[in-house]
User: Fold this.
Amino acid sequence: MFRTFSTTRRQSARLQSARSTVASLALALALTGGLAIGSIAVTSDAAQAQRNRGNSASQNSRGFAQAYQPVAAMVQPETANFEGARAALPGLIAAIENEHDRMAAGNLVLNVANHFSDPVMQRQGLEMMLQSGLVAPEQVGQFHWFVGSLAFQAEDYGAARTAMQAAIDAGFSDPTVDLVGLIAETFSRQDNSRGAFDYVMGQQRTAEAAGGTLPENTLLSVLQDTYDNEMGAQAIEVAGTLLSHYPTQRNWENSLRIVNQLYELEPAARVDLFRLMRLNDAIVDRSEYVRYIEDLDPRLMSNEVETVLAHGLAAGVFTQTDPYYVEVKGIADTRAPGDRNGADRMVAEARSGDAIDAQGAGDVLYSLGEFAQAEEMYRLALTKGADANLANTRIGIAQAEQHNYAGALESFGQVTGNRAPVARMWIAYCQHQLAGA
Assistant:
């Protein structure tokens, strides 16, 4: 399947944030030092508090203290023997009797691990310190983030997910780190795209409840994932959310194309999607213009076809000497005056006729840009037994064209079945218009 867009760069940047964090784990957590992670350092007061929490000799067990001292000496610059310290760590860990012992041992394990750039030991040391419950509160989230990064790099995705969520819950944040996106990636790495979708959208609802939203790249990545896995309903939900918060030209193009590609829309529904694409300048390919025109049929909707041709000409998709353009314009130009002149007759026939007559009159009036009259005819068609999903879609579109976005939202909200994806995109458009009003 043709990929509408690529998130390779976004995914690379996200994964690089995990790699760079792991690479920068220069954590000097020896008994006499403070905490430094990459460019982040604990202040002297915080370092002292950390030492007081985990390294007070009066709170360590006697047996552990005896095992600890010779190993600690091996990591001091003047008596450094890191190979010996590494060999002695299992015995030191075995001597742990209380949580203060565990904190000090984890500190020392981490110090040795940093010397050898050993990610397995780094994770072990960090986890021991967290397990002790003695990590300074302001550092707990950051510690969980580093554990999650190390687990991610080890492809231990379940553990990475748990640790990263703990980091979020502890209030950790960093503008260079997309924790929600990384957690979603752990699901995807385990071939659980539905899990990634559920997690991201749950976090999005939480963010919206607090008056915010997730980063655009996070939503784009899960949109790509749902598209790649042909998860149509989920892709529509993500696309609608994306457009509500980040209604950029590129996002409109991608989202509307995804609907067009994931769903086998019948021509009439596809026309309604193309109408929204045209409003948002999201038709960029010649093939899309041609499909739009063919779905309309220049013999039936000549005035709208003229509008589409003009749009394509302005976009540089057609030229005035283009054989296709010349042929279609000739048909539309011949038919258009008749539709304009016969509009009143069609309305009269619609009032006395059946649902098909009313629907047809609404379509012609819409083509002429007479949106209020078109809405009236679509409502008449609905009372005469027209397909409710078709009628409500076009009532909503006619209302949107009149800038009655609140009314349009109500109409689109009644659309179900195969037309629901198209209605959902129109809902996103109306919500955006209302937000900008």
Q: What stands out?
A: The two ends are 38 Å apart (CA to CA). The chain is about 70% helix and 0% strand. Confidence is low (pLDDT under 50) at residues 21-50. The longest strand covers residues 36-37.
